[in-house]
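Q: For a teaching handout, I want to show students what a protein-ligand complex looks like in token form. Below are the inputs, and the small molecule is flavin-adenine dinucleotide. Please produce the holo structure.
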Amino acid sequence: MTKIPEVWIFAEHQQNQIEPTVLQLISKAQAIAPTFKVVAVLLEAPDQQLEQTLAAYGPDQILAVKQSQLEQVADVEQAMILQQLVQARQPNSFLFGATALGRSLAPRLQAKLQTGLTADCLDLYFEDELLVQVKPSYGDNIMCEITCPERRPQMATVRPNTFAAVPVEADQVCQEIEVLTDLTWPKVAHFDILNEQVIPTPPASLAQADRIVALGRGAADPASVATARQLTAALNAQLGVTRPLTDDPQFAVSNQIGQSGQTVAPELLFCCGISGAVQFLTGITQAQTVVAINSDAQAAIFGVADYGFVGDAKAFMTALNHALLAKNA
Amino acid sequence: MVELTAAQLMLHQMVQEFSANEVRPHDMAIDRERSFGSDLYRKLVDTGFLGLMLPEQYGGAGFDAVATAQTIYDLAVGNASVAVTLEGHYKTLDQLLKYGQPSLLDRYLPSATQRIFAFSMTEPSGGSDHSTLGSTAVRQGDHWVLNGNKIMITNGGLAEVYCVLVKTAPTEFSVFLVDQDMPGFKFGKQENFLGLTGTPIGEIFMENVVVPADHLLGKVGQGHEIGDNAHADARVLMGAVAAGIIEHELELAVDYAHQRKSGGQRLTDLQAIQRKIADIALAKETTALLYEEAARHKAKGQPYAEIAAMAKTHGSRQAVRAGDDTLQIYAGYGYSLDYPIEHLIRDARALEIAEGTVEKMRAEITQLEVAQRI
Amino acid sequence: MKIVVCLKQVPETNQVKLDPVTHNLIRQGLAGRINPFDRHAVQAALDLKAQVGGEVIVLSMGPNDNEYCLREGLAMGADRAILLSARAFAGSDTLATGYTLSQAIRKIGAVDLAFFGRQAVDADTGQVGPIVAEFLGWPQLTLASQLTWTDQGLQGVRRLGALAQTLAVPLPAVVTATRELNDPGYLQPRQIKAGFQQPILTWNEVDLEADPARLGVAGSPTVVRKILAPQTKTVPTQYLNPDPQAAVAELLTALQAKNLL
Ligand SMILES: Cc1cc2nc3c(=O)[nH]c(=O)nc-3n(C[C@H](O)[C@H](O)[C@H](O)COP(=O)(O)OP(=O)(O)OC[C@H]3O[C@@H](n4cnc5c(N)ncnc54)[C@H](O)[C@@H]3O)c2cc1C
Ligand SMILES: Cc1cc2nc3c(=O)[nH]c(=O)nc-3n(C[C@H](O)[C@H](O)[C@H](O)COP(=O)(O)OP(=O)(O)OC[C@H]3O[C@@H](n4cnc5c(N)ncnc54)[C@H](O)[C@@H]3O)c2cc1C
Ligand SMILES: Cc1cc2nc3c(=O)[nH]c(=O)nc-3n(C[C@H](O)[C@H](O)[C@H](O)COP(=O)(O)OP(=O)(O)OC[C@H]3O[C@@H](n4cnc5c(N)ncnc54)[C@H](O)[C@@H]3O)c2cc1C
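A: Here is the structure, written as tokens, with flavin-adenine dinucleotide included.
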């Protein structure tokens, strides 16, 4: 009987937390390769228990290397360990998050294995055992499909937050956890970590913010502004306004979005009580997901919205605050 | 666009990037504050813009007329005042290189990578007509003594070295180099101009300024020729400024007409708007062709005065007109001081006056056509 | 110190279009330029040279017009330039590119440091630096955002998300440069002129003593199968329940599925 092809996922972690992309990749691999064996490959220190997090997303197997040398480890060493595992078990494909570490480690491993690697994929699917990798190029201006027809494993790094991570039902939680404790690898030149520091990302300026709650004249009363400020705190978002609100001394032009204000490019933008004048809209063309809240169903802002709520802005923000509080509690 | 050599292309890419990152973001502030500020000026100097067309032997980069005009264009797309400051400097260096005596050039040109030079002809009594000039130079032994008042000098106040057109006899004109450090040299007031407000434009006074004999450019009596030559050099670059302004207008017009909708249609779908945008694009292309052709002639050593006059005559009017069309596309917003269009029109308007009025240029073009044909 | 900086020439703009019929990239008329990250790599090399002395060599693989990016490296202040150009190199993916560059670095000999950009802005992989490091058996400092030369040797900082690692790297090593590493400023017009007056050495596969099976198309495991225009998303607005509580619940589910919360 031929062996069931395996899809491996490198279980990157940092500060004792699994990198979210790993969980997204487990869910994606299950969806595109239901008949393959999905294996999460984890390198951790003996006192770590990260396989628990992985198991909840239902990979078919977790392959954990638990050794004290893994407390602090260079990319080169991780590549050597993975090389041994791959050569022993011959997976069909090996996926990494396109994170700083993934993009550093995967090509190093690729060169050891002399196989192909596709960078920063936005989609993946199988044609039989051939992995078709869809990646953007030229700054996302074109997409290409890349394959690695001859050599194995087929390797890819995948852009974070491209797929949803879906925890599985209790009865599908991964049971097959294989732990290796006695791997050895040769000593090679590698960097030494002198110091590691978690640097809290400074509050982004409006132009750089990933999340923005923007207020217009339909949400300019003090109660709405106060509700919006709670919302920005809960979402770790920045507050933006339309031009008319800059007459209010609590807002400056640096808070204003639009042609004569800031151009913004958040992943998530709430537009509360904003009509959608062209001078405002030119400032938000780069926003990825737009939620519009306006009492007028005909307002132009709905023309650019992904999600629309026709109704009172303050009521919506209040409900959202409650829901977020409940969720975080 | 003109064929550029690989080195010229690399220069062009650098200047485009400089213009987009360091100049354009300040475009409206430069107009409003009536200055492009010491930071940007420092960056221009430090990046080596002042020595761009100066031969390598004086510490410059030795780029030719084509690359120089392209540079002025690229900067003007960012902001015309910045481009005009360099235009005034380059045209002055051109006259020194052509007419200056070697001893003078060796003393002065190495500093031209660090400080601005200016060329001044205009006086309160007139700009188009030099016969009324009141400034004089009188020979005393192996020196000359200069007196007079010059106005509306591009970079006047910022420039440290001036070439001045003066009378050496009642109907004899000559050009001398004077330095701001010379006793008797004084700055006057800054002009309160409508446009190009970021370019310093000012006045100087000379009271018994004594200069050595080698400060005379060319020969005694060659002043008119040098003045005309300075105009021709300046006009190549003013054509490039005009084309740069039109490119900025075109960018604004297309951008807005594409976004703005009326009656469910984009403005770009309306015939009346299409006519304006097509005209602006045509204006940009014709102006660019003219200044590039003038620059190419100059680089090859062929006559270029007439085509340079055409580039400025055509380009200056087109830049005003294209600005007017752009304003109309933006309508109410175009008329707003919050948008850059109004200052582009004010900037463009200067090009119909500076470096010879369009009337004067038409007269010159006519004379040259007559001379060639009759 | 002998420092090599690898330069890739990329199209001047990323606004490339697809031919609607052939689905080929329309690239004519696009001037090339140096990969923007590679400027930071050159600047880092020059800064290090200014501190410890030595030589900076710029290296590029590609057709003859890649000379242009090498001239830019020279204009920035590199001491000499080597172009790797041969039919045999055409069609290289990152593995073959990495192999070819590593052979050139071997041939240059006694190299202490090889700098790369963090990624090329066209193909966007960022793989070549680590691959070269592997083929040379050198340690790698990827995504360097700071670099200092101390009594103990080379130290650098890289960011892994919120984590900043300070690393000591033994030489010889590979470093990939980010924008944060330094500010290369603008080329001086005079330096541009000077850059065009220097000679450029060209090497082919024979000079590199390369294994032909590892070069170009033959040495490239990946195949670009198809090139597509990205789908422009014109998703219609999804209207939420008119009741605020129900609307919020609906929205949170949708945003979570998109990893936006
Ligand atoms: C030269 C110029 C430059 C400009 N630049 C900018 C700029 O950079 N940025 C900018 O934003 N504007 C700019 N403007 C102004 C722009 O034209 C609009 O006037 C402005 O964007 C409108 O702001 P708004 O949407 O907050 O207000 P309005 O247009 O008054 O819209 C308010 C909206 O709130 C809705 N509403 C009312 N009550 C409620 C409620 N209880 N709950 C929910 N919705 C409610 C209404 O239905 C309406 O749609 C500029 C204008 C000019 C002339
Ligand atoms: C932005 C700017 C920068 C300048 N920079 C400089 C500089 O660096 N150095 C410098 O010396 N000057 C400079 N000038 C001055 C400029 O050269 C003069 O303004 C110009 O030559 C016209 O002179 P004028 O203003 O005295 O007008 P006049 O010469 O008095 O002309 C008045 C009117 O009569 C017309 N006219 C006059 N004579 C004739 C003729 N023969 N044929 C047809 N029409 C005629 C003119 O076209 C104009 O319409 C600058 C001006 C501006 C606006
Ligand atoms: C649309 C498209 C998509 C592609 N996708 C993939 C893919 O997913 N996987 C794959 O293996 N190949 C891929 N390729 C092939 C890849 O672009 C080439 O192998 C290229 O030569 C190197 O890869 P890169 O551009 O990604 O460089 P990167 O690895 O992103 O470049 C990093 C650094 O390496 C150095 N460098 C890169 N190329 C050169 C060079 N030619 N000369 C000198 N230094 C250089 C530079 O310092 C550069 O900053 C793709 C090509 C195209 C056109």
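A: Two things your students might notice: The mean pLDDT of chain B is 96. Residues A 216-218, 242-244, 256-261, 273-275, 277, 279-280, 283, 293-296, 299, 312-313; B 333, 336, 338-339 surround flavin-adenine dinucleotide (ligand 1) (CB under 6 Å).
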